Amino acid sequence: MEEKDIHSELASIRSIMERSSKFLSLSGLSGILAGIYASIGAFIGYNLVFEKYNNLIITDSYSDSPSIYHSLYIIAALVLSLSIVTGILLSIREAKKRKENYWNPVSKRLVTNMAIPLITGGLFIAILILKSDYKLIAASCHLFYGLALISASQYTFSDVKYLGACQIILGLLSGWMPEYAFIFWLTGFGFLHIVYGSIMHFKYKQ
After folding, report:
1. Average pLDDT, integer, range 89-112
2. Which of 123, 125, 204, 102 has its CA nearest to residue 158?
3. First-residue to last-residue Cα distance in the chain
4. CA quadruple 188, 193, 198, 201: dihedral, nearest 10
5. Which of 59, 83, 92, 171 lies 20 to 30 Å from 177, alpha-carbon distance?
6. The whole model's pTM is what?
C-alpha cells in the first residue's frame, strides 16, 4: 500500500472516530446571529438606561428603579430565546445536510453538559433578582455561560472552549467592575459571538 493510501485511510478512520465522539453540526452562522441579537439587545438596553440616567455606566442608583432592571431582564430573555432557537434550527439544518442524526448519544451528552451550568446559573440569577442584588447578575451570565461552553466543548469543536474562557474572563471583570456591565455584555455576547461565529463558519464551512 502506498504512503498516500495509508494517509487517506488514517484520515478516514480519524474522521469516523471524530463523528462518533463529537457533535460537528454546530453552525457558525448561529454564533454570528446570536452576536447580532445581543448587540441589538444591548443597544435597546443602553437607550433605556441612557434616556433615564444620561449615563452608560451602571450605578447603585439603578436599584431605586427596578423597572429598569425588569426591562433589561426581558431583553436578555428574548436575546437568549432567539439565540437558542436559532442555534437549534441551524444545527438541525447542518446535520441534515451532512445526512447525520442530530439527536444522538453525542448530542445528548453535549446538551446535558451545557444545560447543567446554564440551569444552575439561571437559578442563581433568580436568587439574586429575588434578593434585589443586581450588581453581579451580568457577571453571573458570563461566568455560567462560559462554564457551560467549556463543559460542552469536549463533545463538539474544541474552538468552543476558547469562547468559554473569554466569557469567564469577562465575567470576572464584570464582577470586579459591575458599573461597566453594558460594555462587558456587548463585548462578550455581541462582539465575541460574531468573531467566533465568523471563524467557525469559514474554518469549517458551516
Report:
1. 81
2. 204
3. 34
4. 140
5. 83
6. 0.80
